[in-house]
Amino acid sequence: MRVEPLNECYLVSRNGNEFKTRKLVTFHNTNDGSEEKFDMVDESDGSQRVIDLLPAFLTVSDRTSQKVFIIDELDRSLHTILTRQLLEAYLAEYGADSRTQVLFTTHDLLLMDQSLFRRDEMWLVERDMRSVSNLIPFSDFNTDIRYDKDIRKSYLQGRMGGIPNIQPMLSFQSVNEEQAGAAHEFQTNKRLRKAMLCKILSNSN
After folding, report:
1. Do 89 and 128 belong together in one domain?
2. Are 44 and 53 in contact (CB under 8 A)?
3. How far is Cα 61 from Cα 14, in angstroms, rounded to an integer?
4. pLDDT for 114-160, tens place per residue?
5. With CB atoms counted within 10 Å of each terminal CB, which end of the chain scores lower, N or C?
6. Do residues 99 and 50 share a domain?
7. In this predicted structure, what is the pLDDT of residue 188?
8. Is residue 200 part of a domain?
């Protein structure tokens, strides 16, 4: 359990009608061989993210579990290799008798790998002109992409959709021209103010 705004984590356990709460802390080895205690708020975003995800992955890796976890932005604050290792560890424990499932969203293209997931397990999100999001399974592209092909290249080439399309209202050139015009106007006004001041001073003499 994470408590905001202090960003502290607690482990809550129950034994009958009795609840026990323990604060979660971490320990780091120091140069003299001792250990230094850290509160969760002192840990990096990546370390906090791993600690948040571990209970879910430990649960779904249990063959007796029948739970489904939905995780948004699985790769947030994580190194791409660590994200893949978490998934590989889960899939290594997954068998025909497993009844667990992990549904997640990600922007990590290295997870777009046919050696890791089947095509019907990977989906793209395509947003149309009405800002409506549509889900497209990779299995829809069976006729275009071979099973031994690196699908990341096809995706980045825009052949599969789901590519961001940002069209700024102003181009960088127009913005730069506007900034240059504002700077020129400022310098012109500055010279006019200086000329008016000199004229006032001359008239006062």
Report:
1. no
2. no
3. 22
4. 999 998 999 999 988 888 999 999 888 875 666 667 888 888 888 88
5. C
6. yes
7. 59
8. no
The answer to whether the CB of 64 falls within 8 A of the CB of 96 is no
How far apart (Å, rounded) are the C-alpha atoms in residues 62 and 64? 5
pLDDT band at 41 (very low <50, low <70, confident <90, very high): confident
| Whole-number Å distance between alpha carbons of 54 and 138 | 28
Residue 15 placed within a domain:
yes
**pLDDT, tens only, 48-73:** 999 999 999 999 999 899 999 999 99
Record the tokens describing residue 90, joined without a space.
């889960």
191 has a pLDDT exceeding 80: no
Range of the domain at 29: 1-40
Give the Cα separation of 20 and 95 in Å (integer).
34
Q: What CA–CA distance (Å, rounded) separates 53 from 183? A: 51
87 vs 132: CA distance, rounded Å: 29
Distances (CA, A) of 147 to 57, 71, 96, 139, 150: 28, 27, 23, 10, 8
User: What pLDDT band is residue 181 in, cutting at 50, 70 and 90?
Assistant: low
Q: What is the reported pTM?
A: 0.71
Does residue 4 belong to any structural domain of this protein? Answer: yes
Could you tell me which of 133, 101, 132, 130 has the C-alpha nearest to residue 117? 101
Q: What are the b/e assignments for 6-36, b being 16+ CB within 10 Å?
A: eeebeeeeeeeeeeeeeeeebeeeeeeeeee
| Assigned domain for 190 exists | no
Indicate the number of domains in the chain.
3
